[in-house]
Specification:
Pfam families: Methyltransf_23. By secondary structure, this protein is α/β, with parallel strands linked by helices. About 35% of the residues lie in helices and about 15% in strands. It has a seven-stranded mixed beta sheet, with helices on both faces. The longest helix has 23 residues. The model has no long low-confidence stretch (mean pLDDT about 90).
Amino acid sequence: MIDPMKNYDRDYFQRWYRQQSQPRKARERLERKVALAVAMAEYHLDRPLRNVLDIGCGEGAWRKPLRRLRPDVDYLGFDSSEYVVARHGLTRNIRFAHFGDFEVLRPGEPVDLLVCSDVVHYLDARELRRGLSGFGELCRGVAFIDLFCRGDGFSGDTEGFHARPAGWYRKVFSEYGLVACGSHAYLSPAIEGVTAALERFPRDS
């Protein structure tokens, strides 16, 4: 699980998300990331995006740029921060859950885009595997799971960071039916079979 000693409260989000040295650059980078994820999902589904499930959503940073691109998209976020749910739950459609809860938690129909951004490298292996085991049923399109691996250079919160090799993640994601298609995107089992060979990475890569 995520380190229970870490307190994902107002001060945490203020420090790591609102007191950035270059807020405009960070906002523009997020907007490009969201646009990439939307384009990947719509390309592989061959239709406009209808719904998004954001696991470990924090304060719901993805919601606004998603709605800017697709005003009618159905957005639902989950986070384990009690502060986030109390502060933004009603206005941003964010509910409480731990990552591992998605082993059994099914909040609705499978989604076109499942987002799990900047989350899994803070999870222990048991919690990670529990949650991932449900992704195949939760997503009918593309899962966007961006994370950092051992050797990656990044700035930000390193407390509780698990420096795993990239191959470890490839193996674990593949075990749960997620097929890499580039730039942190993974095809769900529902659509893998309709993609061309060079649109996905071999499972044993």
